Amino acid sequence: MVGTQRAAGRPRDAKVDAALLTSTQDLLLEEGFDRVSVDSVAARAGVGKAAIYRRWSGKTALVVAAVAELNRVPPVPDMGSLREDLLACARTFVRNERTQRVLAGLMTAMVHDDELRTAAHDALGGPFTRLFSVVITRAVERGQALASADAEAVSQVFPALAFHRGAALGLPVDEEFVVRVVDNLLMPLLKPPGRPGQRRVAPTDNG
Known about the structure:
Order of helices and strands: HHHHHHHHHH
Helix content: 55-70%
Radius of gyration: 21 Å
Number of domains: 2
Distance between the termini: 67 Å
CATH topology of the largest domain: Tetracycline Repressor, domain 2
Strand content: under 5%
Structural class: mainly alpha
Low-confidence stretches: 1-9, 195-207
CATH superfamily of the largest domain: Tetracycline Repressor, domain 2
Mean pLDDT: 86
Shape: elongated
Number of helices: 10
Largest sheet: none
């Protein structure tokens, strides 16, 4: 007879995962990061603490996973136009109200918590910034952007502004903000100047 003992590598219950992540998000909204605990999340989800520790190392990892669930990183855009690709990257920062509030709470807590800041950057900040970096580097290779463009530095401009707008000012990152930053900051930083009196059109750039 096959034993019923559960192996360490058994598949996780997706319903428990979802309950834990949703409960963490709800508590972040209701209580804030400092007051969220493994105990409170387990109680809200109706499971034991062991269920959390089987999945995550502790509170910080759980919170970052819960926020990351609301902020999935999309594929790198490639529409043949530097402007359209930058807009697509920037639009990944446009979130619904619930996601925006959860993220804003996390970003506020990051200021005073080094462990949280590092974990959040690795799971959230870095991957979203990388979208810009890949798009800009590719645009340089295609002649759509200045050869001297500093992809690493410019790729951090929009994420930094979005962070300030959401965490410090409490304002939404919306479509109007996206277009304004791309057209008034990023494109002037990146696009090669045309000849005097002529509008430059790169061979593979429709933007």
